[in-house]
Amino acid sequence: MSTLSLSSGALRRGGLAAAKLLIAIALTLLGLxxxxxxxxxxxxxxxxxxxxxxxxxxxxxxxxxxALALDRPLTVQFWxxxxxxxxxxxxxxxxxxxxxxEDVIRxxxxxxxxxxxxxxxxxxxxxPLGVQAAVHQGKWIDQVARFVGLLGYSAPVFxxxxxxxxxxxxxLDWVGGPGRLDVAFDDLVDPVTGVLLIDAVLAGEWExxxxxxxxxxxxxxxxxxxxxxxxxxxxxxxxxxxxxxxYITTARVKGLSERRIxxxxxxxxxxxxxxxxxxxxxxHLLEGSVLTETVFAWPGLGSYITxxxxxxxxxxxxxxxxxxxxxxxxxxxxxxxxxxVVDPRAK
Amino acid sequence: xxxxxxxxxxxxxxxxxxxxALTGAVQAATPKDTVVMAKQIDDIISLDPAESFxxxxxxxxxxxxxxxxxxxxxxxxxxxGQIAESWAVAxxxxxxxxxxxxxxxxxxxxxxxxxxxxxxxxxxxxLNKSPxxxxxxxxxxxxxxxxxxxxxxxxxxxIRVDKPVAPTFxxxxxxxxxxxxxxxxxxxxxxxxxxxxxxxxxxxSAASGAYVLRSWKAKESYTLDAFDGYWAGKAKNKRVVxxxxxxxxxxxxxxxxxxxxxxxxxxxxxxxGLASNKSVVLDSGVKGSxxxxxxxxxxxxxxxxxxxxxxxxLVDYKSIEENILKGxxxxxxAFLPTGFLGALNDNPYSFDLAKAKELLAKAGHPDGFSVTxxxxxxxxxxxxxxxxxxxxxxxxxxxxLIPGDGKQTLTKYRARNHDxxxxxxxPDYQDPHTNAExxxxxxxxxxTTKSKTLAWRNSWDIPAMSKKTLAAVEERDPAKRAQIYLDxxxxxxxxxxxxxxxxxxxxxxHPANVKGFIIGPSFDVNLYSQITK
Lengths: 347, 533
Hints:
By secondary structure, chain A is mainly alpha-helical. Chain A has 15 helices and no strands. By secondary structure, chain B is an alpha+beta fold. At the A-B interface, helix 2, helix 3, helix 5, helix 7 and helix 9 of A face helix 1, strand 10, helix 9 and helix 15 of B. Chain A: This is Peptide ABC transporter permease. Chain A: Residues 108-339 form the ABC transmembrane type-1 domain. Chain A: Keywords: Cell membrane, Membrane, Transmembrane, Transmembrane helix, Transport. Chain A: Belongs to the binding-protein-dependent transport system permease family.
C-alpha cells in the first residue's frame, strides 16, 4: 500500500514536471511566433508584391491585400494566424503555392540529413583532434589543430564550398555535383522519411544510395569543417582544464595508462559540456546552412526560410522559424536527458 | 600517446576512404534523350497560364501550352497561327473571327475546340490574376464576357472588343502566355470553390503543347515530358529537366562537367572564362528587357530638364557595356526594344563631361548635388550603379547607393519614395503598346490613381504625351503607327526622367553536340522542342 502511494506521488510529481515543461515549451513557441510575426509586419517589404508581382493592376493588388487580411489591425491578424496554427493550418506559401506544412516536410529532411552528417564529421574528427591538441600542448599536432581551426573559423563557407566543388567535383571527379541526386536518379525512390539515404535503403536502391551519398559528402564536409573547428577548439580547452586536475595526477601515480587517463577519465568528465557544444553546433547547422545550401543547390529549410523572408512570404517564414524553434527546444530536452545518462550527478 | 595518435589518424583515414569508396562509381552523364538545364527558377510561383507572370514560369508555360496565335521568332512582325488556323477582323474593327485548327488534341486526349479557347479567355479574365489586364484592356468583364467571347460552333471563335484598335495590338496580346488555351473539360473537373481549377493548374498542366508537365518542385526543378501527339510534330527529345542552380559559377562547373546540357544564367565572368573552352558553344538572343534609371520627379532637382539631360550624358554606356555587362546586354536608349514595331535604335547619348557640366550650371547646380539611388544588391545592378556613381562624381553629383533586396527596393519604388531607381523592365507582350503604356502614359499623377505606370512611379506628369501614346494604339495602319512611336520615343529620349541604358541579351551555354534551343525575343518563347543531343 505504502509503495503504491509513493509511486503515485512520484507519478504526480512527474506529471507536474511534464506539464510545466509543456507550458514552458508552448510559451517559448508563442513568444517566438510573436516576435517573428511583428518583425515580419514591420519589414520594409510589401508582402502583397510577393503574391501579385510587379505588374499587377490596382484591383488585383487590392484584392490580394484584402485576401492576406492586411487591412485588419495587427492584433487581429496575429489572432487569426495563431488560431489557424492551433488548428494545424500554417497557411499557404506564396512562393511554392503549397501548404507550409507540406513545404516543411519536403525541405526539412534535406537540411536534417546535411546537418546530421556535417555534425557527425565534426564530432568524429573534432573531438579526437581537440583531445590530442590538449594532450600535446604546443607540439605540432596542437599547432595543426589550431591552424585547421582558425581556417575553419575564418574561411567563408561560400568560398570553401566553391573550392571544394572545383577540386573534388570538377577536377578530381570524386564526388557528385550540386543537388541531392544526379538527374538520372531523380524520382526513383518514393519519399518515406524525406532523408534520401534512408529512403534509398528502405527501397533497396543501392545505386540511388551511393549517388545520394556522393552528393552529400562534400556539402556535409564543408559544414562539418566549420563545426569541427568549433568542436575541436572547445574540446581542447575543456581537456586542458581537466588534465590539470588532481585526480589526473592521482591516476598517473596509481600507474594507469595514459590512454585510459585521457580517453577514459578526462574525456568522461568533459562529456556534459561537450554534449552542449555538439548540440549547439548541430542546432547552428540546422538553421544556418543557407550559404552551403545555395552553393550546392541543396533544397533545404535554410534557403527556404531565407528566400521566403526576402519575398515577404510571411506564412512560410513563420512556419519555418517555428520548426527551427521547436528543433532547438527538442535538442535542449535531448541534451538534458543525455546529461543524466552520462553524468549521474545531474539527476 | 602514440596509440591515441594512431586512433585519431585511423579514424580520419577510415572516414575519408569510406567516403570515397562509396562515391567511386557514381558519375553519370545526363541521360540520353533527356535535356538538363541549370537555371535560376526560384521566381516561379505558379504554372497556371492565367496566373504565371514571372520569367521562369512563363518559359515553362510557353513550352507546355499552345495559344491561339504566335509569331515568327526571327521576325516578330509575322504573326502565325497556333491553335487558330486562320483569323480575320471585320470592317468595323471590333469583331474578330478565328477558325480552330482541325484534329488537334490536348494531352488528355480531348479534342481542342473553340469552346476551350473561349473558356480559357473567360477564365483568365475572371480569375483576375496579375497578367489578366492584357486581356481585360479590350473591355471584357464578367457581365459582357458571354456575349463578347463566344464559340458558336466547335471550330469558330468570335471575339468582340470594345473599341477599334490596331489589329496587331490585339493579336499580339493573344500571343501572350495568359491567352494560352487550357483543356476546359479537364479543368472543369478540377474546380474547387469556383477557382476555375487554379489550385490544380498551379502544379499540373491541362494543355495541348509540345510538353506535358511531369512535376514542379518549387525551388528545386521542373520536369517536362514530350507529348507524343503534338500537332506540329513530336519534340526531338523525350524529357527536359530544368534544375534550380542559383550560382552562375556552379552552373558553369556543372556544364563543363557534363552534368547539365545548358547553363542559362552565366554572367560576364563565366562567359569570358568559357571562351577558352572549345567544347562549349554560346547561343544568344536579344530579349526585350531594358535596364534603366528612373528619376523621381518629386525631387525638385531631378525635375529640372537640364539635370535630367546632364545625368543621361554622365553615364559611360560604352565602358559599362564592355567592362561590366560584356555579352549579356547591349546599349539601347529608347523605351521600345530592338525588334519591336517602331523601335528607335538611335543611341544619342554618350559620356560627355563638358556638356553635362554646362547643363548642370544652367540648372543652377554648377558644383553638382547629392542624391540617392536604390539598388538591388545583386550583380549586375550593384556593379552598374557603382559605375554610374563614379562617372557622375566627375561632375560633382554625389550619388549615395542604398542597397536592398529586390522586393525591398521595388516596394519603395512602387510607393514613389525613391530618388533614383535602377531596374529592368520586360515587355508583357510583343506589341509596342506594352512599353509605350508604361513609359509614356500617366493619366493621373495623384497617389490614388488606378493606373500606376512607370511614368507614374516617377511622378512624371505628361498629359500631352499620354494622349498621343493612347492614340497610337488606335492607328490601324502599321507604317503610320510605327512613325507615331518613333516620334514619341524621340521626345521621350530627350525629356523623360528615364535613363534607358541597355537591352538584354540572353545567353545559353551548351556543349557542341547539343543543339536546337530556341531563344525567342520574349521570355515566354524559349523553346525546348528542337533540342537534340
